[in-house]
């Protein structure tokens, strides 16, 4: 398993907190991630990788496969609350878009460049939405929650399948009966159980409630 930080460089309020990443221009972050995937393939000798990403990280599954021609190098792709089509932030996008247009530098300073670019209708999102969501040969699992108020509506986290792509859009409320917030998706046990399902599933396999885990599995000592 390989995990890494990206998108650290931006003139933004968030830079006051060293641990905060994924704030930089999305095109720069997409290129950085593509370079990292190529590096992992080089040092491991793997022809293909499995990708797992939360929120913006989920969106970058699409930037890698569609903007950086990485689809041939991906086997399974799993997103948690992926912002594939732009967010309305609970219906605030119209007001936010006006503020961003009026004071783009201030908006980027307050919310980060990446933050402003992820609002529905942004120039970046228009370019991303002009590309197919998916690519042939990749097994996609997009996991989302009805309680997600960061990436809204849930359709922003749903992927459309092209011919040859295998796509499961997995609503946690329907499959597992849970509704974690956006920020809790990476630590919610039901969501994590579906990440494992997404990484292991066979082509055409659909999720079942039996694959859901609602709490941390107990460890029995020997």
From TrEMBL:
Keywords: Hydrolase. Pfam families: Abhydrolase_1. Residues 30-86 form the AB hydrolase-1 domain. SUPFAM superfamilies: alpha/beta-Hydrolases. GO terms for molecular function: hydrolase activity. It comes from the Bacteria. The keyword Hydrolase applies. InterPro entries: AB_hydrolase_1, AB_hydrolase_fold, Stereospecific_Lipase. Residues 203-222 are annotated as: Disordered. This is Alpha/beta fold hydrolase. It comes from Corynebacterium yonathiae.
């Amino acid at each position: 398993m390989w995990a890494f930080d990206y998108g650290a460089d931006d003139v933004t309020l968030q830079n006051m907190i060293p641990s905060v990443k994924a704030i930089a221009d999305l095109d720069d972050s997409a290129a950085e991630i593509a370079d990292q995937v190529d590096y992992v393939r080089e040092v491991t000798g793997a022809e293909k990788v499995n990708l797992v990403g939360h929120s913006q990280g989920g969106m970058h599954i699409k930037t890698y496969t569609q903007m950086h021609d990485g689809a041939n190098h991906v086997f399974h792709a799993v997103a948690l609350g992926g912002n594939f089509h732009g967010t309305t932030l609970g219906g605030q996008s119209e007001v936010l878009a006006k503020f961003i247009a009026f004071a783009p530098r201030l908006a980027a300073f307050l919310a980060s460049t990446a933050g402003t670019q992820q609002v529905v209708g942004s120039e970046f999102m228009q370019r991303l939405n002009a590309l197919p969501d998916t690519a042939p040969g990749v097994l996609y699992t997009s996991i989302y929650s009805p309680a997600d108020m960061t990436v809204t509506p849930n359709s922003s986290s749903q992927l459309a399948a092209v011919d040859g792509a295998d796509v499961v859009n997995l609503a946690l409320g329907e499959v597992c009966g849970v509704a974690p917030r956006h920020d809790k998706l990476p630590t919610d046990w039901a969501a994590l159980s579906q990440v494992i399902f997404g990484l292991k599933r066979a082509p055409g396999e659909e999720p079942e409630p039996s694959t859901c885990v609602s709490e941390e599995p107990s460890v029995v000592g020997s």
